[in-house]
Design a protein that fits this description.
This protein has two helices and four strands; from the N terminus they run αβαβββ. By secondary structure, the chain is α+β, with helices and mostly antiparallel strands. Strand 1, helix 2 and strand 2 form a beta-alpha-beta unit. The protein is globular.
Length: 84
């Protein structure tokens, strides 16, 4: 993915009526693994021309949800753990 795709996803999340939204990266969400993405972005996206992060943090752009990466959160008495 790209920063633009993360921003569009976040905007879409903001339109959803649910009070709580939990996001956990999937196995192909390379952009969320910033260290891997910075090392491998050319190989991952060599044909698609995706950009480098240049210090941008995709996780910090997800403001309309709770992003979990090897951590948990308790919401309304439910404990939810997320690990990509």
């Amino acid at each position: 993915g790209t920063i633009d795709e993360v921003l569009r996803f976040n905007a879409w999340l903001g339109t959803q009526p649910h009070q709580h939204k939990i996001v956990v990266a999937g196995n192909h969400d390379y952009i969320m693994d910033e260290a891997f993405y910075e090392r491998q972005w050319r190989d991952v996206h060599k044909k698609q021309g995706k950009q480098r992060l240049h210090g941008a943090s995709p996780r910090s752009l997800l403001t309309n949800c709770t992003y979990l990466e090897n951590q948990s959160v308790e919401i309304e008495g439910f404990k939810i753990y997320g690990s990509p």
